[in-house]
Amino acid sequence: MAKITYREAVRAGLREALQNNPRVFLMGEDVGKYGGTYACSKGLLDEFGPERIRDTPLSESTFVGAGIGAALGGMRPIVEVMTVNFSLLALDQIVNNAATIRHMSGGQFSIPLIVRMATGAGRQVAAQHSHSLEGWYAHIPGITVLAPATVTDARGMLLAALQEPDPVFIFEHAYLYPLEGELDESGLPVDLTLAAIRRAGTDISLITFGGSLWKALEAADQLAHEGISAEVVDLRILRPLDISTVLTSVRKTHRAVVIDEGWRTGSFAAEVSAQIMEGAFYDLDGPVGRVCSVEVPIPYPKHLEDAALPQPEKILQAVHSLMGR
Amino acid sequence: MTHVVGRDHGLELLRQMLRIRRFEEKCAELYSGGKIRGFLHLYIGEEAVAVGAIPCFTSEDAIVGTYREHGHAIIRGTPMGPLMAELYGKANGCARGRGGSMHFFDAARRFYGGLAIVGGGLPVAVGLALADHMQQRRRVTACIFGDGAVAEGEFHESLNLAALWKLPVLFLCENNLYAMGTALGRHQSQTDIARKADAYAIPAEAVNGMDVLAVESATRKAVDFVRAGHGPYLLEYRTYRFRAHSMYDAELYRTKDEVAQWKQRDPIALFQQQLRDEGFFTDADLDNMETAIATEIAEAVSCAEMGPWEPLEDLTKDVYTPAKPAG
Prior knowledge:
Chain A has 13 helices and 14 strands. Helix content of chain A is 37%, strand content 21%. By secondary structure, chain A is of the alpha/beta class. By secondary structure, chain B is an alpha/beta fold. Chain B has one domain (7-306): Thiamin diphosphate (ThDP)-binding fold, Pyr/PP domains (Rossmann fold, 3-Layer(aba) Sandwich), CATH 3.40.50.970. Chain B has helices spanning 7-32, 47-53, 70-76, 80-88, 121-134, 153-164, 184-187, 193-196, 212-230, 256-263, 267-278, 283-306, and strands at residues 62-65, 111-114, 141-146, 169-175, 178-179, 182-183, 204-208, 233-238. Chain B starts with 6 loop residues before the first helix and ends in a 21-residue tail after the last helix. The interface between A and B is large, with 41 and 47 residues.
């Protein structure tokens, strides 16, 4: 086990992908000379050259679409859309082309495309740069949606995604990039089907993904001091969702809180909650709780931003309320 | 400009234009009869473009089309049977019946749709060309779109990126003067589409899209230019659709006179006359041609009629590629 930051883990994954497969290339805004907005691709231009590390114009729709075309043409593109906020400019290509072409062509064409982007709030960059829309993407059949929360997943999910024949979208929470973690160097491929139990517990299931995982773990620590044993489930993959790991946990703990940085209405947390209701209703001792973002454009001042987002204290409140404390 | 054509080639061009027209006339009839549903966008009036342009590409090249792509698929060589079956929504259609009129696909002929969001095909075509460029293949991607698409951001982004990276893509704008019902002059500040390419340092040419020989000669030249590695090229085919935008269109936005004027320039009638003037062509030739086409279409209809419906249990098949069996 080596200590490594999340951004270094992403970079390690990118480097391995480029080394292992000559058809892999990276393109996106400022991935080359600048080294990546979050420095994930720093040094890769020097190492792999401008044919394989391609700086693009600020044309999200076209470079994502070009990724689709390049994938159709036999390449293995990794497209970096700087942030989820800008991916909105590429929604036509994602929703109308990447997600549909395989089914609509009767299975004639696959699109082995990876699109990576930063997501999430918490860095005081205000309403237009703080979206958490991975739940939206998870709505769309035809694509796979990943939310790596650990350094091992940051590297390993990227490499595993390269084995997928269809489009994979990877959401990297911007708050995670500088965080250090232990990288599993076992060399075993990372699984792309299962949610992970990040902390075992018996009294309540905290179900989350991405940047909120660390808030849930912090809350679980706190709960342990109070004598409440919380199990923390990291969904990891939003589509296809591994509901069975969630249900197994809920059947054991009989209580669940879903934590999701998306807005509450129509959130991914709502989907998880509904599936818990469908699959484990009679195992529940109370309604499924949700901790989501307040329904407001994320504001700039720190105190307001903090108040808008899920926080460990809010998770504690939700747990307390569910457990009648 | 008068183009010279040999007899055999001339008759072949005429035959191909007639194949599209008769196929689509049958489509309109089948639509009225309820056999074809959804949107149906007919190409009638624009046949000279597909017939002149598509054969300039090799079987290795790629074609990216729009929702008005019946003619391109026919000329690319997809048999009419699977095309008609697709229009019926049958499982023996060229996309298993999943797409219908707007979404013809044919992997064997590198026909990538049938993409029906205006402008949405351009980035995909640029990517196909990027894949060829990166794999050092001397292929060309044909990127077909209409005048409506030049108003989309993706048009401008795609021209810029293709030129910036010097990619082997040939942009083919079928300018039929209407973005659905909005005339070119009502949606473009600069109506000379070929000139827009200049902003991206892409060479371009406007061509009489009602003249199959003019289309052919300009396209051949452009394909050679792109294949030689000089980067993208844009052709604007000036053409006109004789039928409504789709089967739901009351055509309130143009006059009957205007349509009648353009029908004077019917690419099939004009070319037929040219062949007659050359002495290449008799009524008997035409009769034989029409009879053979009628037979081909009747067989296509029968292929569609007899084709199976996709079983309900296959509804979600191919949303994802099936996982490879372990081991």
